[in-house]
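[09:14] KT: can someone run the structure on this one? pasting the chain below
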Amino acid sequence: MMLQTQIKFLSFIALFSLFCQFSNAEEYQLVKDLAYYKSPPNEYAKERCTLDIYYPKETTNFATIVWFHGGGLRGGQKSIPNSLKSKGIAIVAVNYRLFPKAKCPEYIEDGAAAVAWTFKNIKEYGGSNNKIFVSGHSAGGYLTSMIGLDSNYLKKFGINANDIAGLIPLSGHTITHFTPREEKEISDKQPIIDKFAPLYHVRHDAPPLILVTGDRELEMLGRFEENAYLARMMKVLKHKNTELFELQGFDHGGMLNPGPVSYTHLTLPTNREV
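[09:31] RB: done, structure tokens below
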């Protein structure tokens, strides 16, 4: 129960700014452009595979959120979300290789390498490797779910995916992402579920999972319904820590920074049949 409460607290800070009045007056340090591969797979990875870490200087044993930016797996840059700053936690913002210079599953492997780096290094900055959460928006949400549900990606780096304290994907694909589909010349309107779909890897022993989307009528095609199906299947498998939230009135981009919102904007479809 304590773990569930902690995850919900962190996710609300990150996603909805429901606790935007909460701030921490201590100083924070930002370290930029750390390489998370000891031996990058190629020159593009050497250029692209870096992360920034933002952490409290005077606190120890703090929680960390590994944050993946969006951009369709073909654009975007690492940044520290303003809504997460000065909250007494660390943020690890990650760049990963992008299509078309990279192909599936290279960007998923990069995400796993960054999470593994965090597990192996966060103690040096004062953090706890028992409190590492993974989150991201859109393509970043897709990476979050893939890394957390398909344990093989982290296993390659000697990390157990079940040691992740919680997964918080924001409006991420749960079917196969449209970019891997494009690589196979499959239309972005033709859904498929293969090994590159989080739905393919549903399991009862996964880390706690909080799924968040915008309004089903305003979101990208089917994004809420994909997440609702994932939530339902996790519950069918008796995963005890899956929650699904829908931010009513907000579209795909707007749900990331909705500003102060009231509980009336949240629906909890997992409290009823989905």
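[09:33] KT: thanks! The helical segments are 2-16, 43-48, 106-121, 139-149, 152-155, 178-183, 223-236.
[09:34] RB: yep, looked fine to me
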